[in-house]
Automatic annotation (TrEMBL):
This is Phage tail collar domain-containing protein.
Length: 427
């Protein structure tokens, strides 16, 4: 029967399960899922989830240590015999000034953590998805469907008018199994709570500190005075260290969109007091595109989108939303629980010279060992407040079931492939 809702047609019952009209049955395939449009015959496939998680990763810190060398007295006198009158040259006490060690970046291991699972349903109204038991049924009184016309057909009211409940800017979500229609919920945006995390840092060290050159002046015990320049150069390097005292921190996650890709259609309700099937109504369809019955058309404009209910004609046909989304993660900072230092390693390099214009003094090799005390500055690194961090993009659609949509276009409204609208023919 052409002038009827096909048996693969689906309309929406926003009422109790007990009040489902006679001759109609609940389609349990659509319990607790959204109606996802498709562009081909892949209908019948489900996907999505009402909760989802996303991952992010973070990194980075830099710090320096100061290194100073104490001026000390050698452990024993450094003596050398001169070839001038057999004099003894005594080494003087000397010290070194060490420059600050080079800045080093502690590279933390990437830490990917899962953001807390969160319900990401868009604004919704729950409806029982009902199907006709036979092929001779019209849309029941009180049932809900859609249209792309500028106004509701006779006997139907736009959602929110004529005493009907306003479901504008909502999506149809199947009622819970064995449950009733009519509940609302969801939100246009959602966020996630971050699971506290820290970062194990990799082994790190610092470039050596240059201790500079020290000069000692010695007097030869004779009539001749010679200034002997003893130049001793030290390089102090810091052994590598691994830290494990990075603070545990949360990350603030900005809200992301919950709305899937959608197209707006007028939501309309049969308020005529009787079953009816006016031209221009749009319903769901679980059959193939090729099986769409005569006087009905595959409504391909919806494509791979869901229907968003609106009540204003100037919003009909508008599209928006996205099937994927990500979140912006605000900058955050870690701290170290305490300071740390490094054990030093020292290398010594020597050179001897005499001042120009003074007698040359030759000093044979002899014991000249001495020590320095190197103080390593204890430093508490300050972590970067903006490291490299990201949040992955994810398919954010809540649980859905795929189908196509069909529009009722009886012969009485057609002229050679055009539609009569307001007395005019439109393609």
């Amino acid at each position: 029967m052409a002038h009827a809702v096909p048996t693969d047609g689906r309309v929406f019952w926003i009422n109790t399960a007990a009040s489902i009209p006679s001759g109609w049955s609940r389609d349990t395939d659509f319990d607790d899922v959204y109606l996802q449009g498709v562009t081909d015959d892949s209908r019948g496939t489900g996907g999505g989830a009402h909760i989802h998680t996303q991952n992010h990763a973070l990194i980075g810190v830099a710090h320096t240590h100061s290194v100073s060398g104490a001026s000390v007295t050698p452990g024993f006198t450094m003596t050398r015999k001169s070839n001038i009158f057999g004099s003894t040259v005594s080494a003087l006490t000397h010290g070194h000034n060490a420059s600050t060690s080079a800045s080093t970046t502690i590279t933390y291991a990437d830490d990917s953590t899962s953001l807390s699972s969160f319900e990401a349903d868009p604004p919704f109204v729950r409806a029982i998805i009902i199907k006709p038991d036979t092929g001779d049924k019209l849309i029941p009184d009180g049932a809900f469907c859609f249209t792309d016309q500028a106004e509701a057909p006779t006997g139907f009211d736009i959602t929110g008018s004529g005493g009907t409940t306003d479901y504008s800017e909502k999506f149809i979500l199947g009622a819970l199994a064995a449950g009733d229609g009519g509940g609302t919920g969801g939100s246009t945006t959602h966020t996630h709570d971050d699971i506290s995390h820290d970062h194990p840092d990799n082994l790190h060290g610092h470039v050596f500190a240059n201790a500079g050159l020290a000069t000692s002046s010695s007097k030869v015990q004779s009539a001749v005075t010679a200034n002997v320049l003893e130049r001793i150069h030290h390089e102090v390097s810091l052994y590598s260290e691994t830290l494990s005292d990075v603070s545990t921190e949360d990350v603030v996650v900005d809200a992301g969109s919950s709305e899937p890709a959608y197209m707006n259609l007028l939501g309309i309700e049969n308020t005529s007091g009787a079953d009816a099937l006016p031209a221009g109504v749009i319903v769901g369809y679980t059959g193939t595109i090729a099986s769409v019955p005569d006087q009905w058309e595959h409504y391909a404009r919806i494509g791979a989108r869901q229907v968003r209910i609106v009540k204003n004609a100037n919003e009909v046909g508008h599209t928006g939303g996205s099937n994927t989304h990500d979140h912006n993660l605000q900058a955050h900072q870690h701290t170290h629980a305490g300071s740390h230092d490094h054990v030093e390693a020292e290398e010594e390099f020597e050179a001897s010279a005499s001042e120009i214009g003074t007698p040359t003094v030759t000093l044979p090799d002899t014991t000249k060992s001495h020590t320095h005390v190197w103080t390593i500055g204890s430093t508490q690194p300050t972590c970067q407040s903006t490291g490299a961090f990201s949040c992955d993009s994810a398919d954010g659609r809540a649980a859905y079931q795929e189908l196509i949509f069909i529009k009722y276009e009886p012969y009485s409204t057609r002229i050679r492939g055009g539609l009569i609208k307001g007395g005019a023919v439109a393609a």
